[in-house]
Amino acid sequence: MIAKLSGRLDETGEDWAIMDVQGVGYLVHCSARTLAALGEVGEGCTVHTDLQVSENDMRLLGFAESAERDWFRLLTQVQGVGSKVGLAILSALSTGELRDACAAGDAASVARANGVGPKLAGRIVNELKDKAGALPGGGMAGAAAAMPAGGANADAVSALENLGFKPAIAAQAVAKAQAELGEGAGEGDLIRVALKKAAG
User: Fold this and answer.
1) What are the backbone angles phi and psi of residue 153, rounded to the nearest 5°?
2) Comparing C-alpha atoms, which of 150, 161, 149, 152 is closest to residue 195?
3) Residue 50: closest CA among 31, 33, 28
4) What mean pLDDT, rounded, does the chain reach?
């Protein structure tokens, strides 16, 4: 499966982009947030991807951050949420806002997305509230609440999780590391300091 693409942004539309990867153009469907993060046409960019295959369609979804892709996969496990609705939700809410909404049972926030009615929004928060704490992006309580979603932070949390730390511990350690290092700290520095925090 295609997990990531790095290349040049060739063209964009309302909910899609074409990436030129060594002469091959990949059509990737994206949220509005990812499209905004890709930059200008002609510039280099990278997207994390998810390939969805159905009986009569094959669709590549692109995400600026791995955290957004993780949330997309969770959302599309909920009955009634297809790829189009999943992207609409991620266009309306950041991963942090989505995590907070699910943790708090705030269906009204999820219902802001195009194509999401109150009934579907309620189903989403009910089914995902127990899983919300395990994914990077915002958070309701503790040090993780201070950690913005995505970027170096999400990658650092993912790195700690891959080393065997529980998601909540990894998120708290990275949040403490960022508080110590300041905004704009690089992923490598965050991981180095967060490892000491988590181990201590």
Assistant:
1) -60, -50
2) 161
3) 28
4) 84
With beta carbons less than 8 A apart as the criterion, state whether 89 and 72 touch: no
Q: Which residues are within 8 A (CB) of 148 and not within 5 positions of it... i.e. 6 or more apart? A: 96, 138
Tell me which residue of 2, 4, 91, 6 sits closest to 53, measured CA to CA: 2
Report yes or no: 13 and 20 within 8 Å, Cβ to Cβ. Answer: no
β-bridge pairing 24-30 and 58-63: parallel
pLDDT (tens digit per residue) in 158-172 = 887 788 887 767 777
Concatenate the DSSP letters of all residues of the chain into one string: ---EEEEEEEEE-SSEEEEEETTEEEEEEE-HHHHHHT-STTSEEEEEEEEEE-SS-EEEEEESSHHHHHHHHHHTTSTT--HHHHHHHHHHS-HHHHHHHHHHT-HHHHTTSTT--HHHHHHHHHHHTTTGGGSSS--SSSGGGGSPSSHHHHHHHHHHHHTT--HHHHHHHHHHHHHHH-TT--HHHHHHHHHHHHH-
Question: Tens of pLDDT along 91-148?
Answer: 999 888 888 888 888 899 899 999 999 999 999 998 988 776 666 554 333 333 334 4
pTM of the predicted model as reported, rounded to 2 decimal places = 0.65
